[in-house]
Design a protein that fits this description.
InterPro entries: At_inactive_RLKs (IPR050994), Kinase-like_dom_sf (IPR011009), Leu-rich_rpt (IPR001611), LRR_dom_sf (IPR032675), Prot_kinase_dom (IPR000719), Protein_kinase_ATP_BS (IPR017441). This protein has about 625 residues and is of the alpha/beta class. It binds adenosine-5'-triphosphate (ATP).
Length: about 625
């Protein structure tokens, strides 16, 4: 109640200054000391479900007084909640504008079409969460503060002022709107500025460079502010050119490495051709899971697909979860043409099209898994008893001494890995979908952990390529339980699980939490887990950046551009960081993780309900 009173008093004071003491034109619209802003729906005030003021929009009210942010931002609860202040099209002037920096949750500040003057305070550059800034059609003058420091900025509208000096080196690809026309800016337009057209820069007589037609003369300073008129090379330039040289060298070495690798891969392919999977069970089946591409190579080279270097396998075992899949017998499946989908650390996956049955399957050949046939069979049958709608069940499996095969339904919509890292470019993976994938995957994993804990069967190899998606971007956890069990040799766990941090005494269940944490980090940062960032893995990199309090820097630019809630992204990041704790014991259980993510998802849903135009 005290808070509510403070907020109300602050808003009334704020309006008093804006309106020169005249108050709101229509007294039934609130803004008085006898009602409350959220409960009584004051005009222009938007609140969330907890009655917290989020936005204040008083555009077009013909206010001719003073905008004084100290009236709002000195009240702790308002300063912590306010995200948008909008006062477009009044005739306001400003006072104590630098106090706005205390409202550091502000994402939108719109004061276009007023009578603000003087310089924009340096404190603006401290508004880390700012996304949209509209100061257009005022009389601001002087040099801009270093707004380029604000990494999430997507709109800067500053046209029709008297601003001077250089344009900061903004991250232009991030911007949706950029306009500095009709000002007194000078010097070169920074690199990337030509993403916006001439009209966004026009009427700044001393501005030069693309997209403007007037080229920059050989000024003493170039666009990066370096002195280029000096003869000879400066130390910085020597360093820079050495850097280029080193980068060039590394690129050449990488190309040589790739050429050698490709050559080796080609040799391996021909090798595969000769190692056609042969499954000679009691009914003497010869089968191949080689791609049709390879088959043609085989035929051309005169090697029979039916020939098998591994020779006949005695006492082979074929087990189907049902004896037929849509009328398809396992023998037919094994004979069908197959296309290699990918080769992972633990084997290869083939896409198999069974035309007669109208089915497409994904067959995983597992390599180097020293599990006995009977244990394998038992394990697969146990897994088959545990069903969850977001966990992809195997439809069949096969086991011999040489081979272990798992058959799944083929999922045509790719994986979280493909969606994030560029092979499904035309599909949007927005914040809401990422949060949904995170929450559903956590719930499905929690179910599996609970059901299979006694059996000691965790996923064992959880990563973004094993989270497949349907066309509504709902996730399916694939390959659950294919690898190590809790009771198995733990050294196998750390060798098979690329995400397993050292010291995971709680076995693969805690390893799954680590793997899940890395998937969250991939979805939040858009970065590949194996990509090294200054020599660190993704988890270490994120933790180090967050420790330096540069949290916003880690987020995927597309999420920032989309306007995803930073508060909720930070919330999910904190969960991810807990999951990738180097100490396995310190990691939360998947149940706790699922609960935490669901809380964020609920907040997101509530905010969607209360958002929308003011
Ligand atoms: N049922 C399926 N439907 C469609 N694509 C699949 C299916 N199962 C796996 N894939 C895809 O096939 C590719 C290869 O999978 P594979 O499991 O061999 O690779 P990986 O996950 O990178 O490595 P590994 O699991 O061996 O560590 C991956 O891109 C994966 O997303």
């Amino acid at each position: 109640q005290v808070d509510q009173d403070d907020v109300r008093n602050a808003l009334v004071k704020y309006l008093g200054k804006l309106s020169n003491g005249n108050g709101i034109p229509d007294p039934t619209q609130g803004w008085n000391l006898t009602s409350y802003p959220c409960k009584d729906n004051w005009v222009g005030v938007k609140c969330d479900a907890h009655f917290t003021v989020k936005r204040i929009n008083l555009d077009h009210f013909k206010f001719s007084g003073i905008f004084d942010p100290s009236t709002l931002c000195s009240v702790q609860s308002l300063a912590a909640s306010l995200t948008i202040i909008s006062l477009n099209e009044n005739t306001l002037r400003g006072e104590n504008i630098d106090e706005l920096a205390n409202c550091n949750q502000i994402t939108g500040f719109h004061i276009g079409g007023n009578q603000f003057s003087g310089s924009l305070p340096e404190a603006f550059a401290r508004l880390n969460n700012l996304k949209r800034l509209d100061i257009s059609r005022n009389s601001f003058s002087g040099v801009l503060p270093d707004l380029a420091r604000i990494s999430g900025l997507t709109e800067f509208s500053a046209q029709e002022n008297q601003l001077s000096g250089p344009i900061p080196k903004f991250d232009f690809p991030n911007f949706n709107t950029f306009n500095v026309s009709v000002n007194k800016f000078s010097g070169p337009i920074p690199r990337g500025g030509d993403l916006f057209n001439v009209s966004c820069y026009s009427d700044n007589p001393d501005l030069c460079g693309a997209p403007l037609t007037n080229r920059c003369k050989s000024l003493p300073y170039n666009s990066s502010g370096d002195d280029t008129s000096r003869k000879g090379l400066s130390n910085d330039q020597i360093l820079m050119y050495s850097g280029y040289f080193l980068v060039g060298l590394v690129v050449v070495l990488l190309i040589i490495f790739r050429v050698c690798k490709n050559k080796k891969a080609k040799e391996e392919r021909y090798d595969t051709v000769n190692k056609v999977v042969a499954i000679n069970d009691d009914s003497s089946i010869n089968a191949s899971f080689v791609s049709s591409e390879y088959k043609s190579v085989v035929n051309k080279s005169g090697v029979s697909v039916a020939s098998a270097e591994s020779g006949p396998v005695s006492a082979s075992l074929v087990v189907l979860t049902s004896p037929e899949v849509n009328g398809l017998k396992f023998e037919e499946l094994l004979k069908a043409p197959a296309e290699l989908l990918g080769r992972g650390k633990h084997g290869s996956v083939y896409k198999v099209i069974c035309q007669d049955q109208g089915m497409t399957l994904a067959v995983k050949r597992i390599k180097d898994w020293g599990i006995s046939s009977s244990d394998f069979k038992q394990r697969m049958q146990r897994l088959d008893q545990v069903k969850h709608p977001n966990v992809l069940p195997a439809v069949a499996f096969y086991c011999s001494k040489q081979e272990k095969l798992l058959v799944y339904e083929y999922q045509p919509n790719g994986s979280v890995f493909k969606l994030l890292h560029g092979t499904q470019l035309n599909q949007v993976f927005d914040w809401g979908s990422r949060l949904g994938v995170a929450a559903t995957t956590a719930e499905a994993l929690a179910f599996m952990h609970e059901e299979l804990h006694e059996d000691g069967i965790a996923h064992g190899n959880l990563k973004s390529s094993n989270i497949l998606l349907n066309k509504n971007l709902e996730p399916y956890i694939s390959e659950y339980g294919l690898m190590a069990t809790e009771n198995q040799d733990l050294s196998l766990v750390s060798s098979v699980n690329s995400y397993q941090a050292t010291g995971a005494s709680d076995g693969t269940f805690k390893g799954d939490i680590y793997g899940f944490g890395v998937i969250l980090l991939e979805m939040l940062t858009g970065k590949i887990s194996t990509v090294q960032n200054n020599g660190m893995d993704l988890a270490t990199w994120v933790v180090s950046v967050v420790r330096e309090e540069w949290t916003v820097e880690v987020f995927d630019r597309t999420l920032v551009r989309e306007g995803a809630s930073e508060e909720r992204m930070v919330g999910l990041l904190q969960i991810a960081i807990k999951c990738v704790n180097r100490s396995a014991e310190a990691r939360p259980s998947i149940n706790q993780v699922a609960l935490m993510i669901n809380t964020i998802r609920e907040e997101e849903e509530r905010s969607m309900d209360t958002s929308g135009p003011l």
